[in-house]
Design brief:
By secondary structure, the chain is α/β, with parallel strands linked by helices. The chain has helices at 6-11, 19-24, 50-53, 62-74, 86-96, 112-129, 150-155, 198-206, 232-242, 264-268, 295-303, 323-338, 341-357, 389-401, 422-437, and strands at residues 29-33, 36-39, 44-47, 105-109, 137-141, 171-174, 211-216, 246-250, 274-277, 289-293, 366-372, 375-380, 403-404, 406-408, 411-414. It starts with 5 loop residues before the first helix and ends with a helix. It binds pyridoxal-5'-phosphate. Keywords: Aminotransferase, Pyridoxal phosphate, Transferase.
Length: 439
C-alpha cells in the first residue's frame, strides 16, 4: 500500500485509468534513471514502454536536466504571442533536420492532442485561403488514435474512445490495415495495400471538393502497433494527390527514432503534407508538441495574410514554444543525433523482431504479434467476452515481476528506451513469455 490517504487518492481523477482498481492497490512510481523506475517500495522496474512512448533516451539524462535547470534560471516564461525567444527558432530548425525535406515550417503546441487540433484547423483554413471553403470534412482510420481532444476523437477510430462523447467533427473513416491472414507478420505485410483504395469510395460518397485532409498514423501505436502494409501509405499519397486532399501523418509516436529512422515518413518512404509530433521532442521531461508543415502551406498563409501587422493564423497556445520545453527539446534532439539512436534502433530491429515473435509459442491465447523498429504489439484472445481482461492481468503480473508494459484493449504494447541493451530485451521477453504461459 502507499502512504497516500484515501482522500488524497480520491482527489485525483486519473486519466485513461481504471481509477477504482488503481486506488485499491496503487502502483506508485517514485523515481527513474536510465531504463528503470523505482516504485515506492524501492523495487526496480524496467520501463517497457519508454514512459508513454516519450522517453527514448531513458530517464534522468544529464544534458537534458542541465538544459532545463539553466533555462529555468535564465528565462522561465516568455509571452508566446507577438514576442519571441531565441530557443524556439533554434528548436524549429533542429526539428526540420528530422523531417522529410520540404516540411520546414514548425508550429509549437503543448501536446499531441493540440498538435492534431492545429493540423486539422490549418488544413481547413488552408483550403479556405485557396478559395476552396467547402473542403472541411476529414478522413481518419478505424483503430487510429489522434489524442483526447474533440477533433482527435472525431478522426480517431478506437471505439471505446468515441462512444461516450456524442457528436464530433464531420469525419469519416478508412478501414484498418489488418487484413485477415496477416497475423504474426514480421514487419510490413505484403497483403493489404489495397485497403487504401477505400479512400476512393469515401471520395465518391463525399466528393473531394468537401474533404480537407486524410489523417493517419504511419504506424498505429495506441491500438497496439499496427504496421502499414507494403505500398499502403504510397497509395494513400497517390490518391490524395490526384484529388487535391492534404495528407497528414500523425507521428506523435513514430517521429524521432522509434521506427529506426528520423520519422515514420522516412522509414516508410512517403512524404505527407503535414506531420504532427510530441512525446519524444523533449524526451518526456516537459510537455511539448509541434506540427511540421510543408512550406507551400505556410507561404499560402503569408501571401493571404493582409497587412503585415495582422495575424496570418489566429491560432496558438499560451504554452506554445515554452522556453523550458524548447531548451529540453534542443538537448533531447541533440542527444538523439549525437548518439545516432535512430540508426541504433534500425540495427537492433532484427534482434527485437525475432525476440518478440518468439513469444508466439508461449500461449494459445496469443492471436497476433506485430513489430516495427523498436515497438511491438501482442493481441490476446478475449476471456469470457472480456477482451481487455487478459492484457490487464498480464500487465499486473509483469509489474509484480518488475516490468512496466502498457495494456489497452485486447493488446499488450512494448517499446523500451532506445538505449536498451539486448540482455534487457531478453529479460523483458522472458518475463512476458512466463506471464503469457499462465493464461
Ligand atoms: C498518434 C498520437 N496522436 C496523438 C496523441 C495525443 O498526444 P497527447 O496525449 O500528448 O495529447 C497520441 C498519444 O498517445 C498519439 O499516440
Amino acid at each position: 500500500m502507499s502512504n497516500l490517504t484515501k482522500n488524497q487518492l480520491d482527489s485525483h481523477w486519473m486519466p485513461y485509468s481504471g481509477n477504482r482498481e488503481f486506488k485499491r492497490d496503487p502502483r506508485i512510481i517514485a523515481s527513474a534513471d536510465g531504463c528503470y523506475y523505482k516504485d515506492n517500495h524501492g523495487r526496480k522496474i524496467f520501463d517497457g514502454l519508454s514512459g508513454l512512448w516519450t522517453c527514448g533516451l531513458g530517464h534522468n539524462v544529464e544534458s537534458i536536466n542541465e538544459a532545463v535547470s539553466n533555462q529555468v534560471r535564465t528565462l522561465d516564461y516568455s509571452p508566446a504571442f507577438q514576442f519571441g525567444h531565441e530557443k524556439s527558432f533554434l528548436l524549429a530548425e533542429k526539428i526540420t533536420e528530422f523531417m522529410p525535406s520540404g516540411l520546414n515550417r514548425i508550429f509549437f503546441t503543448g501536446s499531441g492532442s493540440e498538435s492534431v487540433d492545429t493540423a486539422l484547423k490549418v488544413a481547413r483554413a488552408y483550403w479556405r485561403k485557396k478559395g476552396h471553403g467547402t473542403k472541411t470534412k476529414f478522413i481518419g482510420r478505424v483503430k487510429g488514435y489522434h489524442g483526447a481532444g474533440i477533433s482527435g476523437f472525431s478522426v480517431g477510430g478506437i471505439p471505446a474512445n468515441r462512444t461516450l462523447y456524442g457528436q464530433g467533427l464531420d469525419a469519416y473513416h478508412l478501414p484498418d490495415t489488418q487484413a485477415p491472414g496477416t497475423e504474426f507478420t514480421k514487419g510490413m505485410s505484403e497483403i493489404g495495400s489495397d485497403r487504401a483504395n477505400a479512400l476512393l469510395d469515401l471520395i465518391t460518397l463525399h466528393d473531394a471538393s468537401n474533404i480537407a485532409a486524410v489523417i493517419v498514423e504511419p504506424m498505429s501505436g495506441s491500438a497496439g502497433v499496427i504496421v502499414p502494409p507494403q505500398g499502403y501509405l504510397k497509395r494513400l499519397r497517390e490518391i490524395c494527390d490526384q484529388h487535391n486532399i492534404l495528407l497528414i501523418f500523425d507521428e506523435v509516436i513514430t517521429a524521432f527514432g522509434r521506427m529506426g529512422a528520423n520519422s515514420g515518413a522516412e522509414a516508410f518512404g512517403v512524404t505527407p503534407d503535414i506531420i504532427t509530433m510530441a512525446k519524444q521532442v523533449t524526451n518526456g521531461i516537459i510537455p511539448m508538441g509541434a506540427v511540421a508543415f510543408k512550406q507551400e502551406i505556410y507561404d499560402t498563409f503569408m501571401e493571404h495574410g493582409g497587412h503585415d501587422y495582422m495575424l496570418e493564423l489566429p491560432h496558438g497556445y499560451t504554452y506554445s514554444a515554452h522556453p523550458i520545453a524548447c531548451a529540453a527539446g534542443l538537448a533531447s534532439l541533440s542527444e538523439l543525433q549525437e548518439q545516432q539512436l535512430p540508426q541504433r534502433i534500425k540495427d537492433m530491429s532484427g534482434y527485437w523482431e525475432e525476440a518478440v515473435h518468439s513469444l508466439r509459442s508461449s500461449s494459445d491465447c496469443i492471436t497476433d504479434i506485430r513489430n516495427y523498429g523498436l515497438a511491438a504489439g501482442i493481441t490476446l484472445s478475449a476471456l469470457n467476452g472480456q477482451p481487455a481482461r487478459r492484457p490487464y492481468e498480464v500487465a499486473m503480473d509483469m509489474w509484480a515481476k518488475g516490468f512496466y508494459v502498457r495494456y489497452g484493449g485486447d493488446t499488450i504494447q512494448i517499446a523500451p528506451p532506445f538505449i536498451t541493451e539486448r540482455s534487457e530485451i531478453d529479460s523483458l521477453i522472458n518475463a512476458l513469455g512466463e506471464s503469457f504461459s499462465t493464461l
